[in-house]
Design a protein that fits this description.
Elements (H helix, E strand, L loop, with lengths): L5 H16 L12 E6 L3 H13 L3 E8 L2 H12 L2 H4 L9 E3 L3 H6 L4 E4 L7 E2 L6 E2 L13
Parallel strand pairs: 1-2, 1-4, 2-3
Antiparallel strand pairs: 5-6
Amino acid sequence: MSDTTRRTFLQATAATAASASLLPGAFAAGNDTLKIGLVGCGERGTGAAKEALRADPNVKLVAMCDAFPDRLEKSLGNMSKIADIAKKIDVTPDRKFDGFDGYKKLIDCVDVVLLCTPPGSGRCTCGPRSRPASTCSARSRWRWT
């Protein structure tokens, strides 16, 4: 059982972010290219991926995941038609994941995950049965999957 509260979690996150900002170039495991993965390929996810690819010249979209394969293909097709970001997309068939557990495989391929799933799509596992994270009474325990 963890005694982590939202307040201590946010304090630790802020301290980590502040220390990371003092280390320029300390990202992507020593590589100059930051590999991005997208989970949730709807309108919100596609827009977030576009913005991430435009944010820096050294980023590349290398993996995508969605519960529905047709939505993933549509998102990838739409982004590939945009000239300024098409050259930054390197999603091969072996890095296209579908289903509700595809994110687990995606995490192993990337440095950064854009999590753009609909609200309530996470599951809480703190009780005797799994339920949507948005309905969990123990939301401050941070044990969502």
